[in-house]
Specification:
The structure is a single chain. By secondary structure, this protein is of the alpha+beta class. The chain folds into two domains: about 5-110, Threonyl-tRNA Synthetase, Chain A, domain 2 (2-Layer Sandwich), CATH 3.30.980; about 125-225. It has seven helices and eight strands.
Length: about 240
């Protein structure tokens, strides 16, 4: 059984919990998984005409994020852990108002045997670009890791990147405000500053980003085109 098939039972359960919190089932659910994480896309998550949604874009995003963080993911966690046989270590989520799609990425406690490194084309240059951009907006990450969940899903994890001011804001409970500010700033910089097509040979369709502030870890998820649009101009080295 493939990793994706092993999580198939999450579809019906997701319909139930999303309808409870958002008043409707997602238009579609897509699950991608490997031995490292379980990734769920909810397309058509919210009803744009829902009167409970705030008019202000930042408040609307926060409203959806809170429902994902405090209700949807906690309900999914025991299911994911039971199906995988492992504990969830980190969780990241995001919602794109442009296409009304959310992602939830549950990273599992690593296996005893480390997974082989994914040496995809453009990896070294991508890490260099990520490090440079992160340094300009805050500081150099302590560690950067990345791997392809599928050919069109690139996961980039940064660790040790919060500056002292951000840590103080988190300690004082300003997670929501910090997430909104960092999300807008960092996504713009990454999208503008990383030549994705040249590095991996695919177009960028959507970029998702989130932070586990208490762990000082961030996920940048790049949803790429399924088709290769050009040969990568940079090798894996």
């Amino acid at each position: 059984m493939s990793n994706n098939e092993s999580y198939r039972s999450l579809n019906a359960y997701s319909d139930l919990i999303c309808k409870t919190q958002f008043g409707k089932q997602p238009d579609s659910i897509e699950i991608r998984a490997n031995d490292r994480c379980c990734l769920i896309f909810y397309r058509g998550l919210v009803d744009p005409g829902d009167s409970r949604l705030p008019d202000d874009p930042d408040e609307r995003y926060s409203h959806v994020y809170i429902l994902l963080e405090q209700f949807i993911f906690p309900a999914l966690t025991p299911k994911i852990e039971a199906l995988s046989g492992r504990r969830v270590e980190y969780a990241f989520m995001d919602w794109k108002v442009e296409n009304n799609t959310s992602m939830i990425a549950a990273f599992l406690v690593p296996l005893d045997e480390p997974m082989p490194e994914d040496l995809y084309n453009g990896k070294a240059q991508l890490h260099s670009d990520i490090e440079s951009i992160t340094e300009k907006v805050q500081k150099t990450p302590v560690k950067i890791e990345s791997f392809r969940l599928d050919d069109d899903i690139l996961m980039i994890i940064r660790k040790g990147l919060l500056i002292s001011l951000e840590k103080k804001l988190v300690k004082k409970g300003f997670n929501t405000q910090l997430r909104i500010a960092k999300r807008e700033l960092e996504l713009d910089r990454f999208i503008e500053g990383i030549p994705i097509r040249d590095l991996v040979g695919r177009d960028l369709e959507t970029a998702y980003i989130d932070w586990s502030f208490k762990d000082d870890v961030s996920l940048l998820l790049l949803k790429l085109s399924e088709e290769i649009v050009q040969e990568p101009k940079v090798s894996a080295e």
